[in-house]
Each structure stands twice: as structure tokens, then as C-alpha cells.
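Please think about what follows:
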Amino acid sequence: MAVLIASTAVFLTGLAGLTWTLFATAFGASAPLWMAAGYEAVISVSAFFGVLVGLGRFRGQEPITLGCAAVGIALSAVIESVSNKHELNGLSLMPFLLGRVGIGGLLGLAVLAGCFQAVWQWQRFIGGLLVLSPIAVLAGPTVLRPAGIRLPNPAGAITSFLDQIGPAGALFAVLAGGLLGVILLSAGGHLVLTAFESDKRTKPADEQAE
């Protein structure tokens, strides 16, 4: 029921936003806001799939469907708001951004709750995220910059450190850092992916006996 209510709320706001951006000239804009309309369309479609899940469709495929809906809603809302500097034709996008990202997060939690039926699965998933966090900190600013999202970038500090330790030290540091990055990516990815495995530890006792 919570999934249905949350998805319906986003779906309705998405339709309203799509209408508002396509007919923006009626609200004082010089032309339709095509780019924003595209984001609103993605949000509406994503939320519609969440509504279908809430109505009992996609039996057995709920986690992957909700996961795609959550990513579509949250990511589109973030990119739309940031690319328009949180304001569109005089309307603040921050309330919509916060609400949609929050609902996307709730749908994501619903996915995890449906997939993870044992404590060890949560432990692996959270552990994997922690292992991957250094890579996210380093790569995040570069990956998100094209979308207009500015995050503190440690690249300058790293470059300055490499300049200070000389060519030989810099080469060793780059090789060691690259090796460490591969290890973290492999270990973190393994933990996150295997957290979704289902085996005897997550099956009811009557199924294990078969």
C-alpha cells in the first residue's frame, strides 16, 4: 500500500509537471521547456511502473521493477533540478527534488527489504557499499560534473601530493593506488552482488528439507 501511495503521488506530480513544461507559454515562458518536459516524462513513466507494482502487477519481478522506478525517479529529479539551478520559470524545484528523491529512496528500501531476508545479506550489502565508498568519493565529482552537480574534488590535492614526492614516488603511488582501486572495486562489487543471492540460509525450513 505504501508503494502504491508513494508512486501515485510522484506519478500525479510528474503528469502535472509534464503538462506545465509542455504548455509553459501559458505560464509566462517564451517557449515550451522541452528538456524539463523530458525529465518529467521519465519521472512519470517510472512512477507509473511503481503504481503497477503497488496494484499487484509484475508478480515475481517486483524488486527489479521497483529498483528501476526508484532510480528513474530520483536520478531524473536530481538532474532536472541541478541543471536548472533549482528553479524553473520562477518555480522552485527544491520541494519536488526533496520529495521525489525521498520517495525514490523509500522505493529503494522496499526493494532491499524484499530481496534481503537474512541478516547476512544486509551485512554484505552495507559492507560492500563501505568498501566502494572511497571510489565513489574519488570518481563522484568527475562523473556528476556533466550534470551540473559540483562536489568537492580531491584531484587537486592528489596531484599536489604526487608533485611533492617526485617522479619515482609518484609512479609508485599511482601503481599502488591503482592496485588498491581494483581490489576495492572487486571486493565491494562482490559483496554487493552476492548480497542478492538466495540459498538455504534465506529459505524457510520446509523448503530446505526438500
Observations:
- Residues 204-210 have pLDDT under 50 and may be disordered.
- The radius of gyration is 22 Å.
- DSSP finds eight helices and two strands in the chain.
